[in-house]
Amino acid sequence: MKYPAVGALVLAIALPFNSLGQANKSGTPKKNAPNKPASTETPGQAQISSQSILIVPNWLPPVNPIQPAATLLHDLVDTKLDVRFDWTKQWLLGVATVTVRPHFYPQTQLVLDAKGFEVKSVKLVTGGKEKALNYQYDKRRLAITLDKAYNRTEPYQVRIQYIAKPNELAVGGSAAITADKGLYFINPLGTEKNKPKQIWTQGETEANSCWFPTIDRPNQRMSQEISMTVDQQFKTLSNGLLVSSKKNSDGTRTDTWKQSIPHAPYLAMMAVGDFAVVSDTWRGKAIDYYVEPQYAAHAKAIFGHTPEMLEFFSKKLGVDFPWEKYAQVVVRDYVSGAMENTTATVHGDFVQKTRRQLIDGNDEEVIAHEIFHQWFGDYVTTESWSNLPLNESLADYSEYLWTEYKYGKQAADMLGHRQTNLYLEEAQSKREPLIRYRYADKEDMFDRHSYEKGGRVLHMLRNYIGDDAFFTALNKYLTTHKLTSVEVAELRMAFEDVTGEDLMWFFDQWFMQRGHPTIKVSHSYADGKVSLQVVQKQDTTYQPVYRLPVTVTTWVNNQPTDHKIVVTKASQTFQLPASQRPSLVHFDSEKILLAELTEEKSQEELLYQYYHARNFLSKTQAIEELRSKVGDLAVSGMMRHALNDSFWGVRAAAAEALRRYRGPEGGAIRKELERVATTDKDSRVRATGLSALTTFQNEDFGTIYAKALNDSSYAVLGAAINALAKSPTVNAQQRIEALRNDKNPVIVGALSNYFALNGSLDHYQWYLSQMDDADAATLYQLLQDLGNFMLRIPAVERDKAVRKMEVMARTNPRYEVRLGAYKGLSTLAGNMPTLKTTLADIRSKEKDERLVGIYNLLQ
C-alpha cells in the first residue's frame, strides 16, 4: 500500500522543522528476546512522585488495548469465486467455494468473515455432492455448524451463495485508506459524463470480506480462482493468470483468473472496466499495463521501467520475482495511493499522465514501492497489523533503493530527506513504536511511522552493517520465510544470523520504542584535539537514550578525516585528534541519522561545508542555514555557485533560498534567477526560479512570465500563471483564458488562484464545472480559492456554489475535500453572516477526529 501523498500536504498544520533530521541506533541487548509486550502495563508510563509533576507530551498516545495476531483455528487452503454484478443496485452476486482445514485442534464449526451479505445458502461439498449446513449470520460473521468434527488432516469444502451489498455497510477508513467497503462501483449508471464505468476492489486491511466470505486475517494464505461474468465491452483483471475467457449466449463473457501460489486474503483483487491493455514482458512473464484508452499511447512512458525494476530487485535480493505475472491497473476514485495485490497492483489515477506531464517528474517511487511489496508483503507477509512495518517500511525503502540505482545517490538522499521530514512532521503530534502491539484500530498502523520512519530506520541499518550484509540478510529472510507470515523478531534474527552480531539494541530502540533522538552538538579545539560534545535532549521519560554509531568528519588543510564514534549517553564528550584547528567539524557527515540535529557552526564553517560537501544533504543544509544571511557577499556568492550545481535539487534549493533577496548583489542575483527561470534544463528548477522572482517587489518580470507560458512543462506553466496572478498583464490575459479547458491539475490549480485574484463573474461557471471534475488534491485548494473568488462577485450570484460547497463539506468521502470546502465557506462567513450557523452545524456533525481538531483550531 502506498500512503497517499495528499494527506501530508493537506493536514500539515504543525510548525515546520528547521533541521535536516536523519538517524541511527541504540538499546538494551537481550539475545533473541521476543519483540512483544511482556505485560499489560502501558509502555512508557512513569510514576508520579509526591515531589514531582510528570509533564505528559502532546505526542504521547492514549492507552490502547494489546492487539495479538489472530488465533488460527482453521487454515484457508483455496477459494473459488463465481461472481457477476448488478450495476444498478451496486451488488455482487456470488458463489464462493472455500476449502479449509483445521489448523491443529479438531473443529465442529467454521466461522468466516462476511460483511453486509445476504446469504442465500450454505452447503458442504463432498465428492461433487452438496449438503445443506446450519448457520448463524449477524451481518459480520458467518458461523457454520459442520456435519462432524474435522481434524487437521481433513480438508473440506463449503459452498456459499450470497449477495454482497457494499454500499449498505457503515462507512469506515483512515488517512491512508479512506474507505473500507471492499468493493466499489464507479459511475455505475453512466451518468457522470467525464468518468468511465468501473468496478474495483480494495482489500487491505480486512475489507475483502465485504465481497467474498473468507478468514480475513493477514496470517492466512490461500490459492484462488475467480470467474467474473461481465458485459463484452469490459476488460477484467485479477490475481494470477487468465486461464479461460468464454462468451455467453446472453451477450456477456466469463473470464476466469487462477492463482496457484497461495497468498493472504487481503491481497485478492478484481478490476472491471473499459481499459486499454498495453503489454510488456520480463524474462518471459507477462507484464501488462491497464489504463484508460486515451492513455494507451503513454502507458509505457508511465510504467515502462517495470521490467527494469523487476530485474533490479530480483538481483539485489537474490530472489527472482516469484509470481506468475505482473499487471498494473489505473482506476478512478481510488481510496488510497496504490495497493500491492499479488500480481495485480491497483494505482490511483494520479499516475495516469501524458508524456508532457511526465516532463515534471513521474511516479516511479510509487511503482517501485508496490513492486517491492511483491516480495515484502505478498511473498512474505506480516502475521498481524501490529507488524505492518515488515511490509510498509521495506516497501518505503525500496523507493530509495530504486532512485539510488536509477538516478544516483543525490536524488535518493533528496527523497530520503523528504521522507524524514514527513515522519518528523507527524512526530510533533504522535509518537509510537514502529511495531505496535497496542492500537485502537488496525487502520492506525497506516501512518508516517510505518512508512517513512521505518524506511529511514532500514537505511540506518544498511549503513551500519554494510550493503553485502544488508542484502544477504534480506535474502535469508525471504528464503527462510517464503509463503509464510512473520513478526519482527524473524527479521531481526535474519540480520543477526548473517552479521553474527546481537542486534537487539538496534531493533529495541528503533522498532520497539517510540520517538527519535534530539541532538545538540558543539565542539572546541585545544592541544591538538577537538572536543566534541554530544547531548541527547529528547524526553527520556518516554523515549530511550539512543545508541548512535555515527561518522564525524574533521577537515584540516582541506583533507577530510573520518572518525567513527558511538554515542551511548545522554551527554558525552569525544576527543578527536587534529594537528591544527579544523576548518570544519561535521557530525553525521554521511547524513544517516533519523534525528532532530542542532550543530553549532559559524558562517565560515557552513560556507566551507558547502564547498567541500560530499553529499547532497550537507550542501543543502549549508544553503538552508545560511539563507538568512544571503545579504553577505560570501553567502550570496555561495548561492550563485549553487545555482550552477550539477544536481537539480541543489539548484532548486538555492533558488528557493534567494527569495526576497535584498543584498548588495541585487542586480546580479536577479539576473541569475532570470537565467534559471528561463534556461535551466530541469523544469522543476525553472518553476522554482519563476516563483522566486515573484518575491522581488516593484520589479517587472512580466516578459519572463509571459515567455514561460510557452514552456513545455506544466510545472513551469503553472508557476507562470501564479506569478501573473500577482502581476497580471493585458498581453498574458488572453493566453491564460485560452487554458480554461485544460484539465491538468497543475493548470487547474494555477487558474483557480489566478481567477480568485483577478476573475470576474464570467469565471463563475468555470469554478462550478471544476467542482465536478477535479481530483481531491486540486479540490482542496480550489474550494478555498472559490471562497475568495466569490467575494469578487455579487452576493445574489453565490447561492449555487455555496450550496455545492456545503454539500461537499458535509458529505464528500475525502476528508481533504471536506476541509477545503469548510475553509472556503469560512472565507465567505464574514461577508455572509448566515454561514456561521452552517459552519457550526458542519463542525458539530463531523465524525472524523482529524477534521474536528482542525475545525477547533480554525474557529
Automatic annotation (TrEMBL):
GO BP annotation list: peptide catabolic process; proteolysis
Positions of region (Disordered): 25-46
Annotated Peptidase M1 membrane alanine aminopeptidase domain residues: 305-510
Ranges annotated as biased composition (Polar residues): 37-46
Alphabetical list of InterPro entries matching this protein: Aminopeptidase_N-like_N, Aminopeptidase_N-like_N_sf, ARM-like, ARM-type_fold, Peptidase_M1, Peptidase_M1_aminopeptidases, Peptidase_M1_dom, Peptidase_M4/M1_CTD_sf
Catalytic activity: Release of an N-terminal amino acid, Xaa-|-Yaa- from a peptide, amide or arylamide. Xaa is preferably Ala, but may be most amino acids including Pro (slow action). When a terminal hydrophobic residue is followed by a prolyl residue, the two may be released as an intact Xaa-Pro dipeptide
Domain Aminopeptidase N-like N-terminal: 80-267
GO cellular component, one term: extracellular space
Gene Ontology molecular function: alanyl aminopeptidase activity; metalloaminopeptidase activity; peptide binding; zinc ion binding
Signal peptide (residue range): 1-23
Highest taxon of the lineage: Bacteria
EC annotation from Swiss-Prot or TrEMBL: 3.4.11.2
A Pfam cross-reference name: Peptidase_M1_N
Cofactor(s) needed by this chain: Zn(2+)
Family recorded in the similarity comment: Belongs to the peptidase M1 family.
Protein name: Aminopeptidase N
Organism: Solirubrum puertoriconensis
Origin organism lineage: Bacteria, Pseudomonadati, Bacteroidota, Cytophagia, Cytophagales
